[in-house]
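== Fold encoding ==
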Amino acid sequence: MKSPQPITVLFADDHAIVRQGLCALLRADGGFHIVAEASDGREAVSLALALRPDVIVMDIAMPVLNGLEATRQILATNPAARVAVLSAHGDDEYIQRMLTAGAVGFLEKQSSAEVLTKALRAIAKGKTFYSPSIARRLANTANLARDHKGLIKADTRRITSREYEVLQLVAEGSANKQIAGTLGISIKTVEKHRQHLMDKLGIHDTAGLTRHAIATGVIESAVLLTIAGEASLPVETSG
C-alpha cells in the first residue's frame, strides 16, 4: 500500500531557535515536509505565494511585517491558503484579529507536540483547529456577526493593509526614506499613508503611532527595547 504524501509546511517565526526546533519536531514525525522557513512576515508572504504549501504556520509578532498583515496578504492573493497561527499571544484581541484576517487555526506556543501535529493534519484536510483553551473562549463569540465563510466581520472603518505595513515600520523606527525603499513606493506615498493613519486614529505624532502599534499588537514592546538597546551599545575603541 502506497504511503500518503507528507503534508507540506511553511514555518514563519522570527525566533530561529523556536522555528528550527519545531521544524525538527515535524520532520521527526515523518508525516510532514518543511518546504521553507521564514524569519519575518514579508518573507513568509513571498514564500507562501511561490511554494503554495498545504499549511502555513504563522507567528504574530515578527519584524518588517507582522503575522496578521502577512496572513491578509497571502489570502488576498491565494484565498485557498491554510494559515495556522502559533503564537505566545493568546489574548482575545489577537485571536479575533487573526481569525478575521482568515486564519483557520490558532495554537499557543505552550501546546504539546501532539496537539501541534494533530492541528496541522486537521487543517491540511480543510478543518479548523484551536487550542482547547482558545476554543472555549471562542464559544463566547458565537453571537458576533460573521460573513458567509463563518469569519467574524471586520470593521468597515479598518486601517488598510498597506497602512498597517507603514504603521509597523514607523513604530520600528524606520524613516520615511527607509519605508519607501522597503515597500517599493515613493516617499510622498509614505507621507500620505502616515497622514491617513493619523487622521483615522486621531493621532498627531510618531510617538502616538508607536504607542498605538504596541497597544494593538502590531509590534511588541520588546522590539522597541531591542532597538533602544542596540542604539545605546557602547562603541569599542582601541588603545
About this structure: The first helix runs from residue 16 to 29.
